[in-house]
Amino acid sequence: MPAHHHPRPVRRHLVGAVVLGSAALLAVSGCTNNTPAPAPAPAQSSGAGAGSGSSNDAAGQKVTIGFSAPAADHGWIASITDQAKATATANSDIDLKVAAGTNDVNQQISQVETFINDKVDAIVILPFDGAALTTVAKKAMDAGIPVVNVDREFSDPNAARVTVLGDNYGMGVSAGQYICDQLQGKSDAVVAEIAGIDSLPLTQDRSKGFKDALAKCGQDVDNRVAADFTVEGGEKATSNLLQAAPKIDAIWNHDDDQGVGVLAAIKNANRSEFFMVGGAGSANAMREIQSGNGVLKATVIYPSTQGADGVKLARLLVQKKGLSDIQEVEVPRKVQLYAPVVTKDNVDQYLGTAFES
User: Fold this and answer.
1) Chain Cα centroid distance, residue 195
2) Which stretches make up the Periplasmic binding protein domain (predicted)?
């Protein structure tokens, strides 16, 4: 399942003046010489701009980062914290202080308060409730501690310096496009959807993306049920769906954790006339895709690397570096990760960072 800004001093470089001066000299020489003047080289900066020569991967200033996320009661959430820890271990200049996972909003607020009192260098947080954690995140920002907001967005953009997001709408689009490609214009196709929790904006975004993508190839959602991101919920909702729809050509299931129950219900009903696309990208779903033996033929990624990405971005913020493969000298304000489709053809590329359901 699933997501802010305190001004900090902008680094000023004398190199800008040098480049302007060089450009002026080149303009003069261009008036007196028939040979075209070469373009001035782009300005270089530490850890930003031209990627060759970047030192972002080399150990730098020691950075203490506070990390807080919900309780690991879901494979995707568990992976968020596990991958954040693994990233810290792999970088000797990161000291990651991991708070106990909690679904208690007040406890998570207290964790952030503790990080502020301990004067950590940065905080990475996947809030259980983005709106509820906004005030304390803003307090951290006001204390000069950059906050990286993961997945569930705060209600005030000034409560974080960077926000790392998956792409819920994009998941729906990717799933819909894949199904369109597989149906190849079949006019009487029956497409079904097994959503997550309908009251959540993320579920609504996924469903909208799916509907929009299907519309472009003349398809629509013929049967739809909602589960609750659990194995039990997935099995129950799918049983209801299969009873209501005696014939189906394609199914998109929003979440691979609930997908364990979805596949169990399909097996119990002895149905196999359709193909299925999963969601989020669990390792067990990818292994099922890899086998090629069942109805699950693809899954759409909702990266569980978001916490790890947040930790790496927090490290760069504190060390006053940018992203080495872009010219901008600062870390971007928002990073939204892509929602690729994983099939048997490319599963090996994604299995290494997949979470276990």
Assistant:
1) 19
2) 65-321
